[in-house]
Amino acid sequence: MHPEVAPLVEAGRISEEIGTRLSQLAPGNYCLHKSWGAGKVLDWDIRGGKITINFEKNEDATMGLQLAISKTEQLDADHFRAQKLEAMDELRELASSDPVELVRRTLKSNGGTMKIDQLERELIGSVVPEENYKKWWDGAKKVLRESRAAIVPTKRTEPLVLRDENISPADSLLQDFEAARDFKAKARALEAIIKDFKHFKDNAEAQEAINKSIDESVRKGMKLHLGQALDLLVGRDELMAASDIIELDASALRVSDIIANEGTKIGEELGSLPAARQRMVFEAYPAAYGDAWVKELLAIFDTVGPRGLAEIAKLLIEESKSSELFEFLRKHIGGRTLGADSLLWVCRERKKSAEPVFDVEVGNAILSLLERDVMDDGPRKSSRLQSYFMEDRGLIADLLEGADNNEVRNFARKLHQSQIFPELDRKSLMARVIKANPQSQELVNSDGAEKKTDSVISSWDSIAKRKEDLEDLISNQIPQNREDIKIARSYGDLRENAEYHMAKDHQKVLMRRQADTEAALASVQGTDFSNVNTDEVNIGTVIAFEDADGNSVTYTVLGAWDSDTDNNVISYLSELGNSMLGLKVGDSVKVQNVEMKVTSIEAYNKG
């Protein structure tokens, strides 16, 4: 007890409890005020009942002793808040030279655990300048994980936890693994274990525990997080490959088990995995499907994303299955059913892996896909392919190399009539066609050009639907997006505010959609498809086809916005629709790569 306070307690003027608390506020000691922050006691007047404290947010504040006792709490001299008063220069130097020690001190003063936003309140502005904090924290997180001084959470809502300084590297790695609450965190902790496997090489018990934990986690969560579950299992297999002392239990879940159970759903879940991890999944297909593994692997070729499909192609070529790969590609290129990522891969690999399937049909397939994407109301899926088609200045020449004059002319006509590209871009592309094949010059000559109007034709119903969509966009979606932005902005810290950035990105999509829809509605021509000439295929006709084996199919050619592929209703602007225009009964055309003959032509609107 302080010498000036002890006599008051002995004389019975104050209680021992008050005396102890008053001694904590002796000059030179530290305290904490809820509003004013940490403070150092400068002086007191016990008889006058006054005390002077230098607070972070209220310098040289004079308070009544009773008020100070009730409104402050003791702060040890080695507490981080006290150090900020006495050794700020040292703390700022630590932020630069040893961020691990800075965070360690902060955590120790707060019971060894803090939320990320609590840490920010302690450091931003005082120890680390606000404008530099994000960059500083990104670097600090990395060295913290490497040093294993603390358990660094993956989410802001989870705590940053100081480790026991005496814990071994192996125990700290296991601690991270066991503390991981989701697949991503568990996979990251497993990667750290694999990287420092030397700490576990002779520890069979620890290896068994890790395997068991992974198996249990995957069985519980793979239905909701299939891709992440596969990532974790592949990591488990890497761990087993490094082990010399244990083998995977016969009852353990394997990658091939999940592949066989989930089928083509696998392809949609692998996009976020690194290429090397995807490759390990693909290598498990023979174990999952036996002799049918190539067929099953090709079934997901168009859904696994650019990294995945490149790995599938490499694997098939390495395993002497290239003939199956090329047959698959030719079929889907000819049928115009190959996706944007796959077509992009074919173009990029045109002088390497994809050379056997690269020809002018790839160009036609690209234009068809871009047209379909433009006609769809949803988000663009082919923007990367379109950019590549425009930017690779040698692509068109390579596409037309070896093509006959008729094939070149058909490709040039399709490109010339296309509404995909802005006028200047289309002229630039046509110039490349003409350079590769001068005979296509006639398509752009004023006397021989096939005129293309700026407007399109569509049914009144489809136009009304577009107007309804525009009204919903203006009256509901855009106002709701503005409200979402306001709400997200209220969360603060826009640098790491994912909700705010998502809302702003969505705003750009909505505004672009509004502009595109308004422009399209301004130029469209409405029709009810009445009084159509059925002597040949025109817009508004129903055409029956039959192949050499007697198989029949019926298509309806309608306006630009009237497509219904499930019911074989196609736009006259589509490649298939355009190829049908002008046909008469008895004429033939390729439909989905099959030669078909026109058997009848009827009016869509018979009224």
Automatic annotation (TrEMBL):
A Pfam family: GreA_GreB
* Annotated ranges, domain Transcription elongation factor GreA/GreB N-terminal: 461-524
Q: Which InterPro entries match?
A: GreA/GreB_C_sf, Tscrpt_elong_fac_GreA/B_C, Tscrpt_elong_fac_GreA/B_fam, Tscrpt_elong_fac_GreA/B_N, Tscrpt_elong_fac_GreA/B_N_sf
What Gene3D superfamilies would the database entry show? Transcription elongation factor, GreA/GreB, C-terminal domain (3.10.50.30), Transcription elongation factor, GreA/GreB, N-terminal domain (1.10.287.180)
What molecular function does GO assign, one term? translation elongation factor activity
The alphabetized UniProt keywords are: Elongation factor, Protein biosynthesis, Transcription, Transcription regulation
Where in the numbering of this chain does the Transcription elongation factor GreA/GreB C-terminal domain appear? 534-602
Q: Which SUPFAM superfamilies does the UniProt entry name for this protein?
A: FKBP-like, GreA transcript cleavage protein, N-terminal domain
Could you tell me what this protein is called?
Answer: GreA/GreB family elongation factor
Q: What is the lineage of its organism?
A: Bacteria, Pseudomonadati, Verrucomicrobiota, Verrucomicrobiia, Verrucomicrobiales
